Amino acid sequence: MTEMMRAIVLDAPGPVEALTIRELPIPTPSEGWVLIQVKAFGLNRSELHTRLGLAEGVTFPRVLGIEATGVVVEAPGGEFTPGQQVVAVMGGMGRAYDGGYAEYTCVPATQVIAFESDLDWGTLGALPEMLQTSYGSLTVGLDAQPGQSILIRGGTSSIGMATAVLAKQRGMTVFSTTRNPRKAEALTRIGVDHVLIDDGDVQAQVRAILPEGVDTALELVGTPTLPDTLRSTRVHGVVCFTGMLSNEWTVKDFYPIEYIPRGVRLSAYGGGAADLPPAVLQGFLDAVAAGEATVPIDRVYAFDQIAEAHTAMEQGTAVGKLVVVTGL
Description:
Keywords: NADP, Oxidoreductase
Domain Enoyl reductase (ER): 14-324
Structural class: alpha/beta
CATH class of the largest domain: Alpha Beta
Number of domains: 2
CATH topology of the largest domain: Quinone Oxidoreductase, Chain A, domain 1
Largest sheet: 7 strands, mixed
Number of strands: 16
Helix content: 25-40%
Strand content: 25-35%
InterPro entries: ADH-like_N (IPR013154), ER (IPR020843), GroES-like_sf (IPR011032), NAD(P)-bd_dom_sf (IPR036291)
Organism: Microbacterium maritypicum MF109
Radius of gyration: 20 Å
Shape: globular
Pfam families: ADH_N, ADH_zinc_N_2
CATH superfamily of the largest domain: Medium-chain alcohol dehydrogenases, catalytic domain
Number of helices: 10
């Protein structure tokens, strides 16, 4: 008899009610793949885009989820040992093949990173995509260096807050934006040096403090705020386009000479598990356990609260990461 699991399935793009919990067979891993018992998974804008029909290249029905945290059940190729704690992230999860919104997921071994930690699953489940994207943006997208300044546009998003934590660990001066003054305290608590209320003219606020502009900037809102972010950055400074909280990511009639300020450099980041070295993941977990770093979590949900969790993500009310724990 085939063993079954609970999974959250999207048959076609639609409202939050389109996410349905149903019984599916537990997948069987082939050589080079890993079967993981999912303990927790974080929610991401990518999954919202898929549900809303904004993502390309997704086939349905599909179990969503571009990340998962749990323990290894089976790895036929011997890459991992049963019982090992692991995270899985990106690489087509929840898009090209079924992802982490389930009690079990089967993913390529190349997308899996092992770790050891006594932190609770809710905390661990918040990390994979958030830490990978934040670390990749800082290193690959920005080549950020100690002592530099950074502007984080979309600061109260999970990636924005994680980037602020990592940047402070690097000895950077952090500017971070929020449109909601009530969320400012959350940014101050994680060590942000300058909280800016986003009124659409952030560059004026930045240059009142740093007349030449910031050294680096991370754009997480999207193309509506990108021109202002570019204007906030000094000559030879770098802006990395990583996120699109606004659901807008293209520039119409892009004319570089007019769009990009003189001497400012524009890059982009969209990576995967290979950009998160195991030592970085383990080091961050150890720092959290020691009280030297924080994981920005807004709320932890039970598996059957997926509709409520997706509604919160769509409304943009969260300050930090939304996480689902399968065993609650």
